[in-house]
TrEMBL record:
Source domain of life: Bacteria
TM region(s), chain numbering: none
Any one GO MF annotation of this record: hydrolase activity
Keywords noted in UniProt: Hydrolase
Leader sequence residues: none
Species: Streptomyces broussonetiae
Keyword Hydrolase in annotation: yes
Residue ranges annotated for the AB hydrolase-1 domain, each copy included: 14-281
Name this protein carries in UniProt: Alpha/beta fold hydrolase
Length: 284
């Protein structure tokens, strides 16, 4: 671990932003590895996520009443709400030194908006197979792109997101085929005996605003923040072609501070499958 113990790392705080249906808990093993490498970190719970996330009323009851039709209790969560949660954390940690903002998957939208609004609070932003809105303003714009056609997981969504006000999944499903698709999409390289632990911690509702709200970034604010993209080489939720499209379009739109790109082995969820390798990539 000695090569990582330098002044840059010791004076750096990593602010970690989770993706859809996850929460600050997803980063626990990565944070422990970061501590071992001499780096401090804090993980954010976006509104509508984490262990305090409100659930559909029948979600934990026999019969799962209303799961396909009941409007989500997080339907009114906005992109501004999510960015504000990140900004609050950035302001709190800024006094400790260098700040690296790390976003996973759908968390790239709120993290980008936070960096656009307060670029002086962020010294580098890292996208871990995450949405970059510099080329196209909505996450949905990339999810529907031809480069994302091989993505798995479309059959996991329940009901009509416009009616529900959320993109809803069912981590507590008893359907073996559904659970296998969930595993193959997000956790195919996570040890099989740990998959149930991960899915039980997921919340069912992603506020619709997160993938659907347009985000406008500018070259004089977001575009001046140094940025890194950590590609996931065997990502089945956001294939490498879609990741590369976001990188290329962002660099074309804002060439002044192009992405530094690194590739990690494995799935969309390296924090579950190989957290130490992820921590080492972050401190490098």
């Amino acid at each position: 671990m000695t090569p990582f113990l330098n002044n840059d790392v010791n004076n750096t705080v990593f602010v970690l932003v989770h993706g859809a249906w996850h929460g600050s808990w997803q980063w626990g093993a990565t944070q422990r590895a970061l501590v071992g490498l001499g780096a401090a970190s804090v993980a954010v719970d976006l509104p509508g996520h984490g262990f305090d996330a409100p659930l559909p009323t029948g979600y934990l009851l026999p019969g799962r009443s209303g799961l396909l039709t009941e409007r989500s209790q997080v339907a009114d969560v906005t992109m501004d709400d999510c960015a504000d949660a990140i900004l609050d954390t950035l302001r709190r940690v800024r006094r400790y030194g260098r700040v690296v903002l790390v976003a996973h998957s759908a968390g790239g939208g709120p993290a980008s908006l936070a960096a656009e609004r307060a670029p002086d609070l962020v010294d580098r932003i890292v996208y871990l197979s995450a949405f970059v809105p510099a080329g196209r303003p909505r996450f949905f714009d990339y999810l529907s792109a031809p480069e994302n056609a091989t993505a798995r997981g479309q059959g996991l969504n329940l009901g009509d997101p416009q009616v529900l006000g959320a993109v809803r999944i069912d981590p507590l499903s008893s359907d073996p085929a559904y659970l296998e698709e969930l595993r193959q999409t997000y956790y195919h390289d996570t040890p099989a005996d740990r998959f149930d632990r991960w899915r039980f911690a997921l919340s069912p509702d992603l506020p619709l605003a997160v993938p659907a709200t347009p985000i406008v970034l500018t070259s004089v604010r977001w575009g001046r923040v140094p940025r890194t993209f950590l590609r996931c080489a065997e990502d089945r939720a956001l294939p490498t072609a879609a990741q590369d499209l976001m990188i290329a379009e962002a660099d074309q739109a804002m060439p002044g501070e192009p992405f530094t790109v690194h590739t990690l082995p494995g799935s969309h969820s390296p924090f579950a499958a190989r957290p130490r390798e992820l921590a080492e990539a972050l401190v490098r």
